[in-house]
Every structure is written in C-alpha cells, then in structure tokens.
Amino acid sequence: MSNVSRHLKTVFKHRREVRKACFKMGLYYQGLTHDLSKFSIKELKVGFKYSNGKQSPIENEKQEFGYSYAWQHHQNKNPHHWEYWIDYKKVSPYESIAYGVKIPFKYVLEMVADFIGAGKTYNKKTWNKKMPLEYYLKTYPRRIYHKDTDKLLRYLFTLIARDSVSYTDSLKEIRKNKKKLKKLYENSSIFNI
Q1: Would 55 be classed as within a structural domain?
Q2: 28-32 long-range contacts, Cβ below 8 Å, gap at least 24?
Q3: How much is the pTM?
Q4: Residue 113 in domain
Q5: 47, 7 in Cβ contact below 8 A?
Q6: 28 lies in a domain?
Q7: What domain range is 139 assigned to?
Q8: CB neighbours of 186 closer than 8 A, spacing ≥ 6?
C-alpha cells in the first residue's frame, strides 16, 4: 500500500471513530468537523511522506527532525488539543512560565473522543476501553493542563474504563449528564462529582 493511500485510510478511520464517539456524546458538529486541518497541504505533505500505519506521521517527522511544522499547524487549528490552550505569564523581565488555560467543556469532550479515535485507529484489534485512561496517565507528566481540565479528563476517562459498563454506554451516560457536568466544570466544582 502506498503512503498516500495508507495515510488517507488512517485519517478517514480516525475521523470515523472520533465521529462515532462524538455522536454518542451529542457533539454532532464537532464529530463532523473533527481534524479537517488534516486535509490542508501542510499536513497532507507530512502525512503522505511519513505514514507507516503504526503511529502518527507527525511522530515519524519529529523523530527525523526533532520537530514538526505539520504538528504546529494541527495543534493551532484544533482546539481539542491541550497545546492549543497554553499561555505564558511573565515572572520577571527575562523569564516566563507556561500554564494551562481551562479548556472549554465541548473541547474536553472532543479530546476524549480523539483519544478513543486515535487508540482505535493505531491499536486496531487490541484496543480496549482502559487505554484512553492509561494513555492519559502515562503522558500527563509531560503535559500542561489547567487543574479543572485535568480533573474532568480523569473523571471521564475513569468513567469510560469501568469494568461494569461498556464504553459506548459510558459515552451515552456522559451525554445524558452533559449539562450537569458542564455546570460543575465551569464552576470549578468538578471534584465534587
């Protein structure tokens, strides 16, 4: 299979899996528009060159160069990525610190769908509902999240990972309780769930 067809197949599968998860949570617009920037020239060129079907072409480009312009483009066009929500505070005339801005609720839910979609795309038949939580916990130390966003993500991924409920039913449960969760999150009361 050529890199072009492999990459397009991967993008379409990822978008389909994210769309399914978004729809189950009642996020129709986001499900339809998720990752449209992947069809931009900047991102397609990298996808076509570095696609191997095992991991994101962006990761493969980063391994070669140590950075990825395609990733910079992608994260700056898609607010469901944590990197989109980083700001800087000046602490001295010569020093700034990065901090996480509270991600709007709908993008937190889309991020959850993105974790599911990416996991199902790259792990294929070995994917299970505990993987989004495991991935979140593994990558958390290297990421910058607002404390309330972190609490909400941990809550949602833990909800999905439960043994007693299918991940599809967990997503439907999130949809059913979306207004309550959003209110708790916006009032910084997410830890009271």
Answers
A1: no
A2: 30/80, 30/106, 30/109, 30/110, 30/113, 31/113
A3: 0.93
A4: yes
A5: yes
A6: no
A7: 81-192
A8: 105
Question: Residue 185 is which amino acid?
Answer: Y
Report the candidate in 1, 30, 25 with the shortest Cα–Cα distance to residue 181: 25
CB atoms within 10 A of CB 73: 18
Q: Which of 63, 47, 65 is nearest to 2 (CA)?
A: 47
Nearest residue to 33 via CA among 19, 14, 21, 47: 19
In the structure encoding, which two tokens stand for residue 130, read together? 């505990």
**pLDDT one-digit tens code per residue, 54-80:** 788 899 999 999 999 999 999 999 999
With beta carbons less than 8 A apart as the criterion, state whether 5 and 51 touch: no
Flag whether pLDDT at 188 surpasses 90. no
Alpha-carbon distance of 166 to 162, in angstroms, equals 8
Number of domains in the chain: 1
Tokens of 11: 């993008």
